[in-house]
Amino acid sequence: MSSHVRRLPIVAVIGSGDPDHGNPDLSAAIGRLIAEMGFHLLTGGGRGVMADACRGFTSVPDRAGLALGIIPRTAAGDEAKEGYPNPWVELPILTHLAGRLGPDGEDSRNPINVLTAWRIIALPGSEGTRAEIRLAVRYGRAVLGVTDRGREGEEAGFLDFLRELKVERQAVQRVGGGWDLTAVRGFLS
Predict the structure, then answer these.
(1) Stretch 83-104: mean pLDDT
(2) H helices present in the chain, as ranges
């Protein structure tokens, strides 16, 4: 007897873990869009872009997907890293991976994030985000870099990085009380 399980695609949102990252509304709007489109959301489960995307995602009632978080361990390996999982992660996936060797190291959770995702949306971030984007390019995963047109000066280094890796990128802007996420919707369609 054969049974078919319907699997929802998983969309990863990656970006800065800094709570003051400068894109909280944009991150939350992208999380909401992912929920409204009927996908699961995957993040690293921490603060910053990860928390804001999860917050936006879980604000959508009656959604089909879950907010998943790939949770790193402390350097001692005895518990989840401080600040993980954020309060909006519905399904924390606890790992033994502490990232002691850096975001490209063998004990990094970044390959799990990248290889699990069907599509990856990258908001500005530093070393960890860039390592995930490099992995996505290496493994042939579809990545869309999303920046705030109003913050192009602050995000110039990230834009240069995306150009250097030839990653598709889109600067979005506020429209009325929200964001024009037409390009993000198209990437996920």
Answers:
(1) 89
(2) 24-36, 49-58, 110-116, 127-138, 156-164, 182-188
pLDDT for the residue numbered 2: 60
25-56 exposure pattern, b = at least 16 Cβ within 10 A, e = fewer: ebbbbbbbbbbebebbbbbbbbbbbbbbbbbb
CB atoms within 10 A of CB 20: 8
At 126 the pLDDT is: 92
Residues forming beta bridges with residue 68, ordered by sequence position: 42, 91
CATH code of 10-183, in short, is 3.40.50.450
> What is the average per-residue pLDDT within 165-176?
94
Lowest mean pLDDT among 28-42, 99-113, 120-134, 141-155: 99-113
Query: H/E element holding 119?
Result: strand 119-122
The verdict on whether omega for the bond into residue 124 sits within 30 degrees of 0, i.e. cis, is no
Stretch 96-119: mean pLDDT, rounded? 88
CB atoms within 10 A of CB 65: 22
